[in-house]
Amino acid sequence: MDDNSVIYGLEFQARALASQLAETEKIKFIIGTQSLKQANNQIHLVEFNEEISTIKTSVFHHPDGEIWKITTSPIDALKLATCYNSVTNESSCTMKSAILKLPVTENLNNIDNLELATTLDISLLGSEIKTTEFHPIEANKSVSVTDSHVVLWDISESNGKNILSIPLEGKNNPKFTTGKWNPHQNCNQFTAATETHLKTYDVRSGDLAWNIDNVHSQLLRDIDYNMNKQYHIATCGDDGFVKIWDFRQTSQPVYSRSDHSHWVWCVRFNHFHDQLILTASSDARVLITSAASVSSENNSEGCITDENEDVETKQM
Amino acid sequence: MADKKYNALDINGPNFNPNLYLDKLFKECTLRQVMDHENEIVKDTQTLHSDMQTLVYENYNKFISATDTIRKMKNDFKKMETEMDLLASNMASITSFSDQINSTLHDTREKISRLSGVHTLLQRLQFLFKLPATLKSRMEEKNYIQATQDYLHAQRVLQQYGDLPSFQGIKTDCESILTELKTELRKQFCNPRASAKELAESVDLLLQLDEPAKELCLEFLSCAEKRLSEQLVMLKDQIEQRDIIEFVDLGCSGFLSDLCLVVASFHDMFINRVNSDSDNIENSTATEIVINAGRKQCKAHLQILKMHFADMLTKARQTLTTPKLISQEDSSKNLNELLNSLIVTIVEKIKGVLQDLVVFIMPEINFAQKPQFKDSFCVDNVREGLIVCFMHHFTATARSFCSTGTADSKVPPTLLLLLSKLCLDFRNGSVHFLLSQTDELFQINPKQNVALTNENEINSTMQESAQGLLNYYVRIQGLNCSQRLVAHNRAEDCPAVMKRVVEDISAIDATVALLYEDQGTATEHSSDSSRKTHSISVSRHQYRSNWSSYTPNHLDSTVVSNMHKLFSERIEIFSTVEFSKVSILTGIIKISLKTFMECVRLKTFSKYGLQQIQVDTHYLQLYLWRFVVDENLVHFLLDEILGSAVHRCLEPVLMEPSVVDIICERG
To answer: What's the rounded Cα separation, in Å, for the pair B252 and B653?
Structure first.
């Protein structure tokens, strides 16, 4: 397994990684670097060829600031959204978000900037932008999560039009940490994470559709929907747990494991074999866990003991 | 001739060539020699000729005799064939004859068998008819055994055909004789001279005759009573006439020996014989009842123990939560006492229960000696059902405190620590003590019985629970501390927060110190008092040397820190801790600092923010080293925190170390 690993080095530290969701033929990843030296920031497009175990890369400038989060459009392979921190003068900076477009033709000679598709102006809706998520089926819609609002945009033009903004209410000034579209139920629901709770809004009305409180004992870091099972959502957080919830019965998770020894930052279902759950943690490890008991492929023979396999150990 | 190639000249060879031979002869020999040779050859030829003739004659004779023999054989076979035919026809006629005879005799044979059947029946009948007479004669001969046997022999037939008029007479006769027989036998009971053997015989016979055992028993006893009372009366009469010694002698030899005889024979006849089969059944049901009772008792005790344990835990929890409000010192002093009292009460309680249960197997008690009972009670109920089960309950309860999901977030962390230590102490002595106590009291040999739960097994679960609780404790305390650090990150006020963190950690240190002694590692710190300053100066030196790389022109490349990371060991944050104070504290500090670091990495700092972090890390550096196993670990983590802060700073300018020192000392 280790013999097949391919290493691609970046010049700067990076925090944002996304796979190109709309690309079905090739394996492509997009990485955004995080450096306070504004002009140095880059976006890397890495294509991995499985058969011959090689990678092909292209690099683009991202002079607007350090990238905290990248998401890709599930419809348009060329579109991606970044949340970045832009230094305005010597000692202050602001978070911004934009939708960018990759060039169709490859230019090997010089490093380009990416074409700006849509700018999203959040200046009135919170100080920090956490993520911008493309609508799963409608190309002209996306949602941004700021620390205090969930904002629905019309992104068909070069300036994003604010359709709806849902404020977060609660005591002690709570903050959103991230969010995700529910790919089921006609994609009308958007789930946001705040502190240790999940809140799901209906984007047609802006009302709260359902919520699960205290999914983790500490900060909730990331969520992901199972593409093949309507009601299943995976969560991970600072308590080191990975949990899968059926949001019709919210008292207990349907699956819960604690294999990481520090905060879990990121969780993803495999779209095809949804028993495979990929998690990344600040214990410097990436784990693939097989949760066969809650898989859509799970047949009557059922609860096979969950086997756990360390696939890759990444030193941070 | 010499030349073998030309064996054409050899007169005896197969390739003989007469012409060549002759040529050679004529060439080489004189006339005379030739003539001699010719004579020789002629003579040879003649002998050969005659030889051949004799051979032919001899063999000819043999041929002729062989032919003769064959011809003779041919004739003989022909004769035999005809004889065989004759034989076959004879055999056939014999078979037919035998069949004929068989069929003619068939009827007769049937008749004979019927007749023989009638004969035996008649014999039996005769026996029956004669039965009354025989019985009578036997009675007269006092051959009761034979009489009984005869009767028993005929009994079945009589019962079956007794209704027929012809048999009725016989039956009544027999029965009258039988009653006579029975009375005769019963008389034997009362016969004072009857020996035990005779008595046994008559009882045996009566039993064979289907007399009810109970009645017999009563009768026997009444007879015996009569006889004995007679003897008593006789003794009473003699009491005045005789000398006391003589009297005692008489009493002993007469009355007492008779009594013994009666008891012995009764025992022999009724108890041993009659009850011999039913006895076992009664016994086993009785044992079962006792076993059940034992099991119930054990269960009840287990329940009590569990409740008691739960009570103790709630009490401990209360004492842990309340006095903390009054004073830190007080609660800490209590902690050790609390632990000891917990252990002592649990052990005492179990010992009490064991004492209670040991009554079941007192040597005086009859059922206690039964191996069946002993096995089931001692091993299954007491050892496995009570003691081992309680231990399992103990660990399960302990573990329920740290199993996420069911875990109650309001559990005071100190209780976790206490429970962990409790498990550990149990593992280190109490389990062994209790098990050996049980084995001793209940005479269980753990080496013989393979099915027994091993002491090691329990010990290892105890150890696991202790470890789990301790890990959980460290995690919780670490999170509590890190919560402070995170909060601090928002509101930027001087080492006040850091001071509180350090205070928290010292408090934890004090609490842990009460339960966990510093073994081994303690020497490292306490070896000399000068160490403190020394280590600080050394560490500060390293500290600066690392950070010196962050001068503004080097700031972009963090090569040095990366190199440092490459060569340093990977730090497991939520790793398993050992059962020692430093290890626990190290765990807590590691978690806190790691959280601090992650928070720093998510921020963007101004120049002052960075300098604040610089002060904070230096302050922690000054105070945290004494709590941990390896100071370098703290240095490394703090180093990385500052490194990350530098990396996340827009205007990375650090303060002069001397200034930092002054600020920290003032704080």
So the answer is: 121
